[in-house]
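Human: Note token order:
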Amino acid sequence: MYVYTVESKQVIMKNIATIFMFILATSSLMAAGISSSEKQALVKLYKSTNGNQWVNKWDLKKPVSSWYGIKLENDKVVAIDLSNNNLVGQIPNEIGNLANLKELNLFKNSISGTLPVAIGNLMSLKSLNLAFNKLEGNIPSAIGNATALESIELYMNRFTGNIPAEIGKLKLLKTLSLFNNELTGSIPSTVYNLSSLKVLLLSSNKLTGTLSREVANLTSLENLSLFENNLDGQVPFALEKLNNLKEMNISYNQFSGLVSRNLAQLDTLNMTMINDKGVAVVLPVKDRNSALAAED
């Protein structure tokens, strides 16, 4: 029969204390929270957009998991939704440190300044919604590095310059919504290679050039809006090859020539264009419904 001595009891108690401390330390590590770089990026976003005046503020002394609009998975920031929350200021470059971010939604705030080049660092980002803000300058070409993107919504801002050709690298892109900005130049040829694209909204900009026959490559396209730009040339009959196209508005451009009845009926404003005298005119319609043969 084993006899417990004072010494043996002390050893047992010491071992128990050691095990307890190990468990406590392990638990502490497991509950350590997000990395310091991710937390610093969020704090920078808070301070650079006047967080004290947000509708739903953050208590920076509390865990990040309690912060409004932040979603964590395995102590990683995967989503930010601060839409309609009175953000006033600029998006900091540190936003690019959120390497696991899948969704960034800052819709309908008063964010100004430019879109940081660091946005291209977000390799996990699937959804980017910065619509209804006051962003200006060019859309950075680095956005093409965020190859997981499926949706880009930058409409109702003040972006200028060309649509970056690098957007054509986003092979998973389904929605590209850039309407109501001040974008110039032509539609990049690379955009026509986005076979997954379902929604292409470029209306109310200052785009020039033609609509390429390569638009027929957008086989998944369901909604096309080029309304109110300065596009010219023949309306490509290749649009009729887009079997999934349900909505289209390419009126109030400077397109010319004949259109088929099918295309005229599909267009919201029945192909009403602005001629060289600034007068609204309706493009003439061919007698037959389809004019595909005329272009082949």
About this structure: Residues 6-30 form the longest helix (25 residues).
